[in-house]
Write a sequence for this structure.
């Protein structure tokens, strides 16, 4: 018997493996300290190489097929920078812009700028890009020229460096929104592109970094454009391996194989990065909202009072505390994002189940068969689904919490987690009662997009009358100053939050870990995180685009 | 002789039919899943498109025709070896597969061989020592390996050997910065391949071991073994020449079947190690609903599986004399008739 046990040599080996697995995460910390203490003092000199892990592949930076703004913006420039999400974007490829009357703008473009392939950048490129966006295939930027706002005519004046824009209706925010959103494409390349979605050459822009190499699903290699008109980049080359698996990404960061990652570090992993001198954890506002969308075309959410009742019944703070471990802000001020300069600062979306119950009672939604759930006023069973993408486990938990919270006011929900694309299909085909998803900066911080969202079926659709909102949109379109538009926007937002079609649950926070001994000049530009072109431009340029030092997790 | 040819011909027709059915399924499956590639391009903003714009976008990726038209184009493509252009990568499907396949073969090929060799040797050893301590501990060890998911082993390797000890890189198939020498490149690729290769080997060795062990136990129970043992045949010869040779038949079948899945790659391990193989490509294509890409990969897998079956069919008589004689006798009978 004893002999038999002695010969079970395989067992201790297996136990050992399990034990080592348990210890590994703790011991990994000490190592990063030792390996990364070199490379200090790189404040003024150009840093030779920076390795930034990115979690997804967006193709050869073709804005028609892959759309990650901070990444495409390394290569492309816009007339104004940094984005429509700051108070006052500054002229960038434009030297100046002037509004002549309600519908006319003229823009002078900078001289002496070259495309990465050596060709001259001219005003014709601007005209070409805007027309290409307006008349050609749609991408996420195009509505900024084709609908809200609508630019009828674009002409280059005789001096060859002034572009005149003629809008179909008042366009006071053309410079602060449209100019700050549309990347300018080189005419000499794109004029021959018949099918922009099948264009697979490396992006050629005017930006601070040249895309040298792209290997699908593997990596990007960028080289600094040392002639950049806004100053020589602070890093000579940026290599970006694509690491999709979260664990693999953070492993690579701990092992020192990459210097930064653009994947947010979840709350439970932050401690493992905190205790090293080399690593810093920057906390930024990604200008996004996790929302509970309601199908406003279906019963019962086609009634505005029901939507209000649901909004009243959601305890947003408890979702943040339970699911996010406090990492995030509860959506107490509703939609759009409170950090956007275009958002009404006085919005509020209270939590009041008593009032919610009262509303449902008064509408005739009552529990007539005593099963704990309300029936419709016609006496039919009322059972709704919440669709959510299974690739977003956090949203699945949020949906489960909503189900519990709404049970308290007698509404019955089923959570249906499904594969990401199936989810997207169900969502785009309006095949749902409710959904939980995330909407990014372009959706929740761009005031023109708010209008667009009410026309193009996300928050509402042109096809259904919505008299109160329609009147406001008409007023908005007629308003000819930014101040007037803002005031009307504020009213729209208030109306919206009173009967929301997508309820703001929380405003996520993102935490990025990076190795400060390799590079430590990252700045935050609202909605862009810390890895973007402004982090790699000279100090004075960073200040000019109002990029700020990020907050750190201590 | 003619009979043999006609039987081969029959087999080919049989395989041809299977191939055609598989091709049709390969075409239909991607399209049966909800969603289309536009969702991948546009994400949430798809709702901002008008019907005309949507139609335009579908046209630009060749998905505007009816299903029937698309099917004809697909079949024509296969006959002319033109498998279309990937929607996500905007490059010919075969170019992309050609880029990825070597990486998968580099990982999965050696891993399967290793796993078979180790599994067979340990299985034979275990069976010979049935009931003893070494058999029991091996059995427990192998059952554990069999039960532990492959990705977990991979994560463990990464956490300990790559992150903690720093012996291996944590991702990719090669470094982004090369020293430019061929030898350096080979070394770099080898270092990157070790952990994923070991992971696949460990994840699959259990089934080879268990199969060999049970097959061996059956052989060892046969009368001819007792006979040979009584004749005084040497132990080594007894295990390898008498018992294992017979026990190998089911293992060989198992091995050839898995050969077919070789080209399908190892989705999970390739993902954990960010390895640019076919498995990960397939996963990405499914997420993007990249129909041409999925069709291309399915085609390769179909060919792999059918090829492996054909290979098994043709080579089985070589290692099993019974299958050989059976055919011969049958053939001879027919000739007489």
């Amino acid at each position: 018997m004893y002999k038999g046990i002695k010969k079970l040599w395989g067992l201790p080996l297996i136990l050992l493996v399990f034990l080592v697995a348990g210890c590994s995460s703790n011991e990994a910390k000490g190592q990063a300290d030792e390996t990364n203490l070199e490379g200090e003092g790189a404040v003024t000199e150009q840093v030779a190489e920076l390795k930034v892990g990115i979690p997804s592949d967006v193709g050869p930076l073709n804005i028609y097929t892959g759309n990650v703004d901070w990444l495409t913006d390394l290569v492309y420039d816009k007339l104004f920078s940094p984005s429509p999400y700051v108070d006052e974007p500054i002229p960038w490829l434009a030297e100046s812009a002037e509004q002549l009357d309600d519908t006319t703008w003229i823009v002078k473009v900078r001289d002496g700028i070259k495309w990465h392939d050596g060709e001259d950048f001219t005003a014709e490129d601007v005209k070409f890009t805007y027309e290409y966006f307006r008349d050609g295939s749609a991408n996420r930027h195009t509505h900024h020229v084709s609908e809200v706002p609508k630019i009828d005519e674009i002409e280059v004046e005789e001096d060859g460096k002034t572009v005149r824009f003629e809008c179909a209706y008042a366009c006071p925010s053309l410079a602060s929104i449209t100019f700050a959103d549309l990347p300018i494409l080189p005419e000499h390349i794109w004029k021959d592109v018949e099918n922009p979605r099948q264009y697979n050459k490396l992006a050629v822009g005017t930006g601070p970094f040249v895309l040298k190499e792209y290997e699908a699903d593997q990596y990007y290699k960028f080289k600094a454009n040392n002639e950049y008109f806004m100053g020589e980049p602070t890093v000579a080359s940026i290599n970006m391996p694509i690491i999709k698996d979260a664990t693999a990404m953070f492993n690579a960061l701990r092992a020192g194989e990459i210097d930064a990652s653009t994947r947010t570090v979840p709350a439970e992993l932050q401690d493992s990065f905190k205790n090293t001198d080399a690593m810093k954890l920057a906390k930024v506002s990604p200008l996004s909202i996790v929302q509970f969308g309601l199908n406003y075309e279906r019963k019962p959410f086609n009634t505005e009072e029901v939507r209000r009742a649901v909004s009243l019944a959601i305890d947003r703070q408890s979702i943040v505390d339970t699911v996010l471990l406090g990492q995030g802000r509860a959506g107490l001020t509703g939609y759009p994002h409170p950090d956007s300069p275009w958002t009404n600062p006085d919005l509020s979306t209270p939590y009041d189940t008593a009032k919610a119950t009262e509303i449902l009672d008064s509408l005739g939604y009552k529990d007539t068969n005593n099963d704990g759930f309300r029936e419709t006023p016609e006496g039919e069973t009322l059972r709704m689904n919440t669709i959510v993408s299974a690739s977003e486990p956090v949203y699945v938990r949020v949906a489960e919490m909503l189900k519990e919270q709404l049970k308290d006011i007698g509404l019955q929900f089923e959570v249906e987690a499904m594969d990401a694309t199936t989810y997207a299909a169900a969502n785009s085909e309006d095949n749902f009662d409710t959904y939980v998803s995330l909407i990014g900066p372009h959706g929740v911080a761009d005031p023109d997009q708010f209008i667009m969202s009410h026309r193009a079926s996300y928050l509402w659709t042109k096809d259904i009358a919505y008299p109160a909102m329609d009147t406001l949109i008409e007023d908005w379109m007629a308003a000819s100053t930014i101040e007037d538009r803002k005031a009307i926007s504020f009213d729209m937002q208030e109306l919206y939050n009173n009967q929301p079609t997508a309820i703001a649950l929380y405003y996520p926070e993102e935490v990025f870990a990076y190795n400060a001994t390799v590079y430590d000049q990252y700045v935050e530009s609202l909605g862009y995180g810390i890895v973007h072109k402004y982090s790699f431009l000279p100090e004075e340029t960073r200040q000019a685009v109002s990029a700020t030092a990020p907050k750190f997790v201590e | 002789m003619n009979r043999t040819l006609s039987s081969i011909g029959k087999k080919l027709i049989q395989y041809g039919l299977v191939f055609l059915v598989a091709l049709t399924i390969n075409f239909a499956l991607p399209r049966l899943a909800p969603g289309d590639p536009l969702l991948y391009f546009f994400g949430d903003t798809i709702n901002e498109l008008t019907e005309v714009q949507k139609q335009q976008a579908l046209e630009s990726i060749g998905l505007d025709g009816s299903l029937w038209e698309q099917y004809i184009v697909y079949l024509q493509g296969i006959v002319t070896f033109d498998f279309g252009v990937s929607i996500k990568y905007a490059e010919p499907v075969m170019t992309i597969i050609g880029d990825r396949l070597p990486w998968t073969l580099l990982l999965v090929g050696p891993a399967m061989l290793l796993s078979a060799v180790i599994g067979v040797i340990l299985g034979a050893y275990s069976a010979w020592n049935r009931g003893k301590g070494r058999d029991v501990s091996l059995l427990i060890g192998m059952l554990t390996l069999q039960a532990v998911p492959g990705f977990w082993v991979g994560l463990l390797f990464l956490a300990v050997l790559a992150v903690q000890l720093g012996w291996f890189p944590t991702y990719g198939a090669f470094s982004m910065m090369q020293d430019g020498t061929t030898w350096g490149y080979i070394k770099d690729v080898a270092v990157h391949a070790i952990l994923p290769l070991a992971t696949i080997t460990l994840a699959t060795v259990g089934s080879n071991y268990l199969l060999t062990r049970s097959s061996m136990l059956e052989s060892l129970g046969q009368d001819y073994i007792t006979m040979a043992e009584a004749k005084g045949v040497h132990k080594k010869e007894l295990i390898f020449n008498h018992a294992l040779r017979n026990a190998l038949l089911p293992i060989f079948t198992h091995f050839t079947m898995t050969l077919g899945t070789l080209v399908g790659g190892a989705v999970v391990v390739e993902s954990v190690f960010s390895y640019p193989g076919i498995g990960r490509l397939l996963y990405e294509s499914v997420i993007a609903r990249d129909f041409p890409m999925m069709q291309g990969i399915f085609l390769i897998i179909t060919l792999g599986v059918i090829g492996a079956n054909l290979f098994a069919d043709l080579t089985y008589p070589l290692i099993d004399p019974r299958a050989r004689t059976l055919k011969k006798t049958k053939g001879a009978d027919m000739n007489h008739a």
